[in-house]
Amino acid sequence: MPQTHPAIETVTTAAPAPPAELTLEERLTLINTEMTARLDEAAVAYEVNTAHIPTEPVDLADVVTVPLTPTLQPPPDSYPTPVAALLQRAHHRLLTGGWCSGVLVDEDGARCMLGAIRAEARGDSGLESSAVAVLLDAIRRTFGDDVDSVPSFNDAFARGRVPIRMVDQAAHLAHARGL
Question: Which of 49, 65, 112, 152 is most buried by a 10 A CB count?
Answer without folding.
Answer: 112
